[in-house]
Predict the 3D structure of the following.
Amino acid sequence: MNKKGQEEMVGFAVILVIVAIIFLVVIGFVVKVPNKSNLESYEVESFLGAGLQYTTDCEDYSGFMDIQKLVSYCGEENLCLDGRDSCEVLNSTLNQLINSSWNVGEKSPIKGYKLQIKTGEKEILSLFGGNETYNSKGDFNEFSDKGKKYEVSLVLHS
Amino acid sequence: MVNKLGQMKIQQMIFMVLAVGLLFLLVGLIFLSVAFRNLKESATNLAEKDSMLLVSKLANSPEFSCGNAFGTSRINCVDFDKLMALKENIEKYSSFWRVAKIEIRKIVPSSEVECKKENYPNCGVIKVLDLQVDSLTSSSVFISLCRKEVNEFGFYDKCELARLVVAAEDKT
């Protein structure tokens, strides 16, 4: 009789273990949270592509220049037709584009940014904002003008 | 006495089988409800992914792209004039892209004024397609919104920065 009681207790314990395992599996399914990033890399890529085509208010003899042309114009240290420094126009235009496109801040998904324009080893322009973090997404765009190669890169920290 | 003990044992076993059966049924129901919820979620995710894929190629489709109208061929360049023409004839395209909403919003210079024939190009929002249905989270890409502008020296290309926004219909 004593042995029978022991057997029933073991059976009960086995059932409890099975139920616990099933509940753990179910809870695992319920709690699983999809991993989704707030910042997609194609957004950075498209920003650089579209941003370089933006028409600025700096004019040369052929008309208003887009950012891409203004980068090489700034690289050659030329002035706009109205006498303004092309690098200053480039700086203010890029600042305006970034600040209007990305909401950078401590409480925002984007904590900071870094935009760099280089030709070879020479840095033409560098813009920083916000804070640097270990989680970042970025892209770069290369183009050539008058035999010089230019590289525009943007990194966003999230 | 032996017969009664046997009957009791059978009863005990029946109760146990019933209890375990009910337990498995309950767990099965919970599992099924979670599985169905996941199915709904995957359908939503798929629709969102579709609109994300669509938005990344829509700007370069013949209905939107600048083509060679602004010099060389450009990527992510949308022709503002073409867009206005498309907006006027959108009923022919209402089911073409299978999305609930296609919208373009100028970022620089920004404006909340909706674009119509009367105020073109001094506006900021071009509602190309709006089926007026519940929509999922929208996906967007940056585009260059280009048009021909005229000044005292003649025509020139004017490109502004904008966002192309696409939202899929919420069918759940």
